[in-house]
Amino acid sequence: MAGTIAFAITAVLAVAPKRIDLFGVVVLGLITAVGGGTLRDLILDLPIFWIEDQSYLWVAIGASVAAFAAQGFFNKRSIFAGMLLLDGLGAALFAIQAVDKVWALDFGRPLVPIILGVVTAIGGGLIRDVLAGRPTLLMGRELYAIPVLFGCILYTVLLAYLPDEHTVTAIAAVAFIFALRAAAIRWNLREPDWLLTGPRQVDPEKPEA
Amino acid sequence: MAGTIAFAITAVLAVAPKRIDLFGVVVLGLITAVGGGTLRDLILDLPIFWIEDQSYLWVAIGASVAAFAAQGFFNKRSIFAGMLLLDGLGAALFAIQAVDKVWALDFGRPLVPIILGVVTAIGGGLIRDVLAGRPTLLMGRELYAIPVLFGCILYTVLLAYLPDEHTVTAIAAVAFIFALRAAAIRWNLREPDWLLTGPRQVDPEKPEA
Amino acid sequence: MAGTIAFAITAVLAVAPKRIDLFGVVVLGLITAVGGGTLRDLILDLPIFWIEDQSYLWVAIGASVAAFAAQGFFNKRSIFAGMLLLDGLGAALFAIQAVDKVWALDFGRPLVPIILGVVTAIGGGLIRDVLAGRPTLLMGRELYAIPVLFGCILYTVLLAYLPDEHTVTAIAAVAFIFALRAAAIRWNLREPDWLLTGPRQVDPEKPEA
Q1: What is the distance in angstroms between the Cα of A201 and the nearest Cα belonging to chain B?
Q2: Count of CA atoms in the C-beta half-sphere (13 A) of B173
Q3: Distance between CA atoms of residues B88 and B6, nearest Å
Q4: How many Å apart are CA B65 and CA B60, to the nearest integer?
Q5: Measured between beta carbons, which residues in chain B are less than 8 angstroms from residue A57?
Q6: Rg of chain C on CA atoms, in Å
Q7: Where are the alpha helices (DSSP H) in chain C?
Q8: Any idea which of B93-102, B114-123, B141-150 has the lowest mean pLDDT?
Q9: Residue A35: which of A134, A123, A130, A148 has the closest Cα?
Q10: CA distance to A11, A46, A87, B44, C43, per residue, from A49 (Å)
Q11: What are B196's strand-pairing partners?
Q12: pTM for this prediction
């Protein structure tokens, strides 16, 4: 739930500079909050979680409206930093919960739980960026998806080798993702050049545009 | 059916300035016409409506080819205005029909019928704009989705309080959406500034770019 | 399988100029390779093929990493041309296999098998381009989707009139698509102007930008 709120609020703040209306704000907030889980449930052919429990929808709509009404407040430096952290925690919780769900259903171990964990965490944001005409996070160098991926892999390994320590390992994996993400935010970490495609020999004197 | 035709034709006219080929025209016309209903059926885990009844596909393909062949005709001022109105009527019919279907299935009342009504009406257009590299309607100030949203809310309230007047209330809700949309087209209504995100203090002397 | 590999590799080469990271490369390679089949299975409400058989995922991930690591190699003229051909063969195989599957299930003949054949062949590439912020192939004049469409129509006709020659006709349809695509690559064929929307009277002295 905290993740749902944080996803909706950071979505609104992300698209706000584009001057979109309250309707667009709520749609994009909602999609960011529930889009990843919707893709997961569609792929697994399970009932979509928000049809079963509408409270996710109410919370995401409420958070989007609140973020719209109080943009000034949420854009304050300290509040925004807190929201980014909450968003990172949300991504961690969404991912690990999804890995757990898929693992328990015994679908395509080990790859499918990992992939659907990542999809659940970043899918909503990808759809939001595409609809809002923003570059998706796949195109950037922000360390967002990589911590999620590593956490999902770690949790899958732990589930395989320590199946009885379910709760402990889930908390450890969430903490792992959150710590990586918090460190990336705190020290503004970016990926090294050799992890990128394209020409690598860049003159260090002339920064790229 | 009229809605399917209007959706396909307005889709072709919308993307025509981009110089795309007949294949792209038909694909985009088809997606605009059946995309929203496809999303609805996927989310509800029902058989996709156009697999059950292919006539929707034939009509959408035919309308797209016709719009391609007779672009000059459909782009005439009076014909285009009529097409816009027909498109508004199509959106109204698609939305109310979807609310009806989801309500009858008793899925997640009251929020899920409203959301899927809106998705059915605007989903196809969103996918079209994303594939064609156009800004989606979420980013504009056109009054298109808001009338649909209000109509779906109205119809849901009527279904809850007047469950026996099914047909009358459906017609009323379609008429309500269509009237709002027609008024928006006729007087070129735009959303007021306070409904938008972003900086609000704009010098009235200097219009925005 | 060859198609999966070729799709992943050509996807990586297509997005490489944008300087994206290894994570984005693998995600986009994977989506290109399995995205079309995923859409097909979602629409048919069948279990997603890569949940049943993870080897597709491993192969697509491996091919994406290989393409990332050896961009220089794959970008060599001769290798790249071979990859384009392999990609065309992959599209042909994906499409005909999908038509076959949908036809055997007796879903919405004759239109649905054709549509899902095309979706399977080009759907992954469309999602990739949208996520990577590239114009989709619907907007270009490359002869890619049209051979696939013609091949799917041909195969559907053959299935209807020569139902017992199943294997022979499938091979013929794959060969047909591949031959058209190879000819388009070899002679750099583009679609004629009259197949495009928009203004047609272009001064032949002033080429378009």
Answers
A1: 32
A2: 31
A3: 9
A4: 9
A5: 111-112, 115
A6: 18
A7: 2-15, 22-44, 49-52, 55-69, 71-75, 77-104, 111-131, 145-161, 166-186
A8: B141-150
A9: A123
A10: 20, 8, 20, 11, 19
A11: A21
A12: 0.91
CA distance A116 to chain C (A): 11
Q: Give the closest-approach CA distance of B196 to chain C in angstroms.
A: 25
> Counting beta carbons within 10 angstroms of the beta carbon of residue C106, is it exposed (0 to 12), middle (13 to 18) or buried (19 or more)?
exposed
Tokens of C89: 């063969």
Mutate to test the interface with C, among B23, B32, B49, B68 (most CBs of C within 10 A): B23
Q: How many CA atoms lie within 13 A of C88 on its CB side?
A: 24
The C-alpha angle B110, A36, C90, rounded to 5 degrees, equals 125
Nearest by Cα to A24 from B129, C115, C144: B129
- Write down how long chain C is: 209
Range C63-83 burial, b when 16+ CB lie within 10 A, else e: bbbbbbeebeebeeeeeeeeb
Q: Which amino acid is at C91?
A: A
pLDDT at A208 over 60: no
Spacing of C-alpha B69 from chain mean position:
23
Neighbours of B166 (CB within 10 A): 14
A 2-21 residues with CB < 8 A to B? 12, 15-21
Count CB-CB contacts under 10 A for residue B207: 7
**Radius of gyration of chain B from its Cα atoms, rounded to whole angstroms:** 18
User: Angle of helix B55-69 relative to helix C111-131, nearest 10 degrees?
Assistant: 60
Task: State which residue of chain B sits closest to A39, comparing Cα positions.
Answer: B43
In single-letter form, the type of residue at position B162 comes to L
Chains contacting A (3+ CB pairs below 8 angstroms): B, C
Q: Do A20 and B138 touch (CB under 8 A)?
A: yes
| CB of A130 less than 8 A from some CB of C | yes
DSSP C16: G
Two tokens, residue B89: 């009527």
pLDDT tens readout for residues A62-110: 999 999 988 878 778 888 888 889 899 999 999 999 999 999 998 888 9
Give the Å distances, CA to CA, from A101 to A54, A92, A117, B155, C45: 19, 14, 9, 36, 20
One-letter amino acid identity for A152?
C
